[in-house]
Amino acid sequence: MIFLETPLEGARLIDIEKRGDDRGFFARVFCANEFAAQGLETRFVQGNTSLSTTRHTLRGMHFQRPPHEEVKVVRCTRGAIWDAIIDLRPASPTFGRGFGAELTAATGRMMYVPRGFAHGFLSLTEDAEVLYLVSDAYTPGAEGGIRWNDPRFALDWPAAPASISPKDESWPDFDETAHKAAWNAKS
């Protein structure tokens, strides 16, 4: 695997190294030793998948409040997505900044999303399937979200969503004061 820095502290893009022949290829998508050597999480307790049947389906921006923050390793296994993350860790040098990258089944590129980040994606194709490794079990009471197009973060989405759930559409703009208070109270 090839680990690539992103503009956000602790977040990585991960490219797989395909070993192939006329039958196809083989590649690692996770190796505890390689992740540990990069200082990344090596323990994952859930594997989740989602399928977006319609092009330009938006899912996000989701996060888990302390002490239930999650590390995610996100890989598109069919089609293509634009994967977006926002650093919500108050003590981080990249707090409040966002980043996005295209993940496709063809390239196998993955996004490593550290604890304390909001995450979401926009499907770029029909039938886009995404696989997530997650470090902590989902805790409904710790769930939070931010409006996908909150101007505070100026994420450069490649298209407007054609489909978005009522829940994701109703997330509020980011309240930095309330977020920092909640983060500090629960950490």
Give me a quick take on this structure:
The chain is mainly β and 187 residues long. It has helices at residues 32-37, 166-169, 176-186; strands spanning 2-5, 12-15, 19-21, 24-26, 46-52, 57-64, 72-78, 80-87, 98-104, 110-113, 117-123, 128-134, 143-145, 163-164. It has one domain (2-186): Jelly Rolls (Sandwich).
Key traits:
187 residues, mainly beta, six-stranded mixed sheet, six-stranded antiparallel sheet, Jelly Rolls, 14 strands, single chain
Task: Write structural notes for this entry.
The protein is built from three helices and 14 strands. The protein has 187 residues and is mainly β. The protein starts with a strand and ends with a helix. The strands form three sheets. Strands 1-2-10-7-12-5 form a six-stranded antiparallel beta sheet, with no helix packed on it. Strands 6, 8, 9, 11, 13 and 14 form a six-stranded mixed beta sheet that branches. A two-stranded antiparallel ribbon has the order 3-4. It has a single domain (2-186), classed as Jelly Rolls (Sandwich). The mean pLDDT is 95. A hairpin with a 6-residue loop joins strand 1 (2-5) and strand 2. The chain is globular and about 55 Å long.
